[in-house]
Amino acid sequence: KGMIYVDYLEKGTTIKGAFYAKLLDKVRGAINEKRRGLLARDQRLQQVNSP
Fold it and tell me: What total of structural domains would you count in the chain?
């Protein structure tokens, strides 16, 4: 069904815990807005280029 949320960082930027927590809130909001039914089911998060 396609992507729900995309976020890019500048090259060399380090993700800290507080930033990541806010990012997950944004993802949850995007899911709630675009695909309400997914919040009730099992969810998967795909992160590209993450160690």
Answer: 1
